[in-house]
Each structure stands twice: as structure tokens, then as C-alpha cells.
Specification:
5 strands; about 30% strand; alpha+beta; globular
Length: about 100
């Protein structure tokens, strides 16, 4: 496993070895609405929002070097959604 960031101020993501090769994982401690997960997954192909241990993560297979450029844009977009979903939960969580 390796850890990295797409930019110095960006959250940390990890590259994990799996039986099928490598995958990139950007975890976030929020549980998005099911409809938001379905919408993202319908639009983004192999870059999926998954629930890992009950929390959201952007997950994408790493096949070649071009995937890292795509990952950078997707991670930034996912981060914006994760923040939006977290802020939408404030009334329910008392934050």
C-alpha cells in the first residue's frame, strides 16, 4: 500500500494492491445519500463511490499512467461532493 495526495492541500488517498491489480482509494468519513451514490456511479464508469466500513470512498482501478491524470480530476470532484454531503448532514448531526 502507498499513500499520496493529488496536491499538497488535498486529502490523502492510497494505492492498494489487489488480486486484480492496483486500485486507488480516497476515503471520506461521510455516508452519502443512496441516490447520490447511484447518480455518481451511473455517470463515472470505473470510478465508483463505494461504502467501506460504512463510509464513502472513491475507488478506481489503476491500469496505466494515464489513470493518474484522470484520478486527479475525479478526486477533486469527489472531494467537493463529499464536503457537500457532510454539510447537508449538519442539522441531523448537530454540527
Amino acid at each position: 500500500m502507498a499513500y499520496a495526495r493529488t496536491a499538497p492541500q488535498a486529502p490523502e488517498f492510497r494505492a492498494e494492491a489487489t488480486d486484480a491489480g492496483w486500485r486507488l482509494v480516497l476515503p471520506w468519513n461521510v455516508r452519502p445519500p443512496a441516490a447520490a451514490i447511484e447518480d455518481w456511479n451511473a455517470r463515472m464508469g470505473v470510478a465508483r463511490i463505494q461504502l467501506i466500513d460504512g463510509e464513502a470512498a472513491l475507488v478506481m482501478p489503476l491500469v496505466g499512467p494515464g489513470d493518474l491524470t484522470r484520478w486527479q480530476g475525479l478526486a477533486a470532484e469527489a472531494e467537493a461532493h463529499f464536503i457537500q454531503w457532510r454539510r447537508a448532514r449538519r442539522p441531523a448531526e448537530g454540527m
